[in-house]
Amino acid sequence: xVRTAVECAxxxxxxxxFDSKETFAxxxxxxxxxxxxxxxxxxxxxxxxxxxxxxxxGDSLVVSIREKGIPFDQSRAERFTPGDLESANxxxxxxxxxxxxxxxxxxxVHGRQGKEVRLTKKLRYGAIPADLLGTRPVRRREKRPTxxxxxxxxxxVEDLSEVxxxxxxxxxxxxxxLLYDLEALxxxxxxxxxxxxxxxxxxxxxxxxxxGFKYHDPSVxxxxxxxxxVDPAYRSPGLPLKMARFLYDRAIAExxxxxxxxxxxxxxxxxxxxxxMGSRPCCLMLGIAxxxxxxxxxxxxxxxxxxxxxxxxxxxxxxKTIFIPERHRAMAEDIxxxxxxxxxxxxxxxxxxxxxxxxxxxxxxxxxNVAFIVVHAIGxxxxxxxxxxxxxxxxxxxxxxxLFLPADVPASPFLVDRCENMGFFLAGVMPHVHGGQDRxxxxxxxxxxxxxxxxxxxxxxxxxxxxxxxxxxxxRSLR
Length: 479
Known about the structure:
Helices cover 30% and strands 27% of the residues. It is α+β, with helices and mostly antiparallel strands. It has a 7-stranded mixed β-sheet with strand order 5-6-7-8-9-11-10, sandwiched between helices. Strands 14-15-16-18-17 form a 5-stranded mixed β-sheet. A 4-stranded antiparallel β-sheet has the order 1-2-4-3, with helices on one face.
């Protein structure tokens, strides 16, 4: 039956969209675990069986092999050591193969019910097909209950498991990984790094909506608005805006400096909503939206690799002096005027900077396939360090690289010029984002961008999009 067990594992892996390497790993682990179960099978009764089960739990495939064989103490098992000739004929190679093939291998002893080997392997986002889920798609024209006046409040710790389930019901595994890790989500909420707001149907008590603030640097107090979703089984007109207003009011009351959001350009709904809230466009980041994001088990649309329009809602409007290259000054002045953030534009230095440089490269999650390069301090080595970071990202075949430069130092325009010679071009400006500093944001895009497919809401966003397009062409001509 080993061959049948392995073929079953093969079919399960293919159903869950594992690639060839991952499928081989699952087959290998099942082969070893099932063979071990057969080897230790007691055979004392005709009705005894080896039970092989495949199921999805959370964001992982779990393979369970149960039998009533000889009791086994894993802690006393001999270990196989690769390269050690003396261990070549000892048991343990199968356990090593299983450990290398799967994310976890666990042994459970269930008393008179025998023992169980449990193999676990994490799934990719969006991998679960509809027939494995307990939820069903919401059909068009299906009558849904309307919740006219939902209760909107901060999520409590006991609500977070339902937040995870709601994210799954709405988008499968296409949302941010934090929403599928209950322990991590709980830590973020308890530490204040994430504020989770929920909407509850007062009649049924069902959680029907979610939105949140991510504090990337809690000391700066500039959260990113996001992770918004509403249960498609309910109607609640204007619910995302109601939850956003709740969060905006808390940010103002708690003295936050401002609020960012990243609105996709595959449609204009979120852009329109943010501008109606008073947020204003400040950056167009090309090629950052994840590709192939589709909840196949739900009636949601596929989002191709795309772009986002960043908006900013200013709370802190304290004046300061920044340094922007002369050719970008008019566009920067317009953006700051839209946001109602007062800025003086200082005289730029044209000579190379001195002093110590500090540059970091931050790859974003795999499904985005992009990276950030953040210049914390401009110094004599900044140009070289940015160039090396860009080459590293290109060697890793990143779709795009986004460069954040401090705007409050006179040397910033000099470094902007040098980076544009590398192929970076302007994306926009961001107030307060790193250590309270304003940032000039440049981008290097290594994939074709269909500008006609970028859907923009409002005259301000159209002006910014036009400028970014012209800058990409200008920088391309320099190369």
